[in-house]
């Protein structure tokens, strides 16, 4: 069992944006969802943990390795799938994985061949091993990305927005692969897609404006909202008024008409009905989007 401890991590960019605001998290093996809207600071946190950029202050350790003081040690136990997994032109899946295995120091040819075959099997691309990665679908590229992240038996795998741009069946296949991988190592799944976390993660954090605004189990967060979420359809022109009168947590179009969810300690009457809260309600209530409406 590995433990990743992040303490008091802060980062302000040169333009004054505070991307990390005193972030504290403790993670163990399994799939951990880091959920936040665009601009929340997720990539900044992932890139800092991957030692691609520096924080202004704070510490991070994994099993006794000080990530910022011993970046070379960290990289030995890290698998990283960045937001944009760029690939070299005209390289096959097998060549790419072999190349990365060499870069990661697996010099024994027989061992490397076996590993690459094992990984291609694991991500279900063995039949496509001789095809150019450039021609792969988004989902297939992401699976190559996971395969390369697994080289070197990492203790920590970071995947940054992995499902954006995947179609539903590709996404499902990718979920299954991640769930399989996540049993033995710490996987941080950074995403703005609530479904990703609901489907895969037993622990999560919600991030907004550089801060961790929730840390715990998705189910507990949902339970906290029990009996406090109400919905109704409204007319377009009424949205402003509802935003003034109620704490709107989400607004989505259903059949061309806005359906709003609000947070309220008591039944608001006025045509609202109580709904069973879901993770989306948790997400929107924690990041407080009502100002987006007006
Ligand atoms: P997320 O991954 O959640 O979308 P980011 O970490 O990419 O969030 O960005 C957090 C905030 O920091 C945003 O306001 C973004 O514009 C800003 N930001 C990110 N990278 C830089 C940078 N290199 N220089 C200045 N500002 C940045």
Descriptive notes:
With 294 residues, this protein is of the alpha/beta class. The chain has two domains: 3-217, 3-Layer(aba) Sandwich (Rossmann fold); 223-293, no CATH class. 34% of the residues lie in helices and 29% in strands. It has helices spanning 42-49, 71-76, 93-103, 109-122, 138-150, 168-181, 194-200, 218-224, 239-245, 279-287, 290-293, and strands at residues 3-12, 18-28, 30-35, 57-62, 65-66, 78-81, 156-160, 186-191, 203-208, 211-216, 229-233, 247-254, 257-263, 273-274. The strands form three sheets. It has a six-stranded mixed sheet with strand order 6-7-8-3-9-10, sandwiched between helices. A four-stranded antiparallel sheet has the order 2-1-4-5. Strands 12-13-11-14 form a four-stranded antiparallel sheet, with helices on both faces. The chain starts with a strand and ends with a helix. Residues 13, 15, 17, 19, 36, 38-44 line the site of adenosine-5'-diphosphate.
Fold topology:
Layout: E1 3-12, E2 18-28, E3 30-35, H1 42-49, E4 57-62, E5 65-66, H2 71-76, E6 78-81, H3 93-103, H4 109-122, H5 138-150, E7 156-160, H6 168-181, E8 186-191, H7 194-200, E9 203-208, E10 211-216, H8 218-224, E11 229-233, H9 239-245, E12 247-254, E13 257-263, E14 273-274, H10 279-287, H11 290-293
Parallel strand pairs: 3-8, 3-9, 6-7, 7-8
Antiparallel strand pairs: 1-2, 1-4, 4-5, 9-10, 11-13, 11-14, 12-13
The structure holds adenosine-5'-diphosphate (ADP).
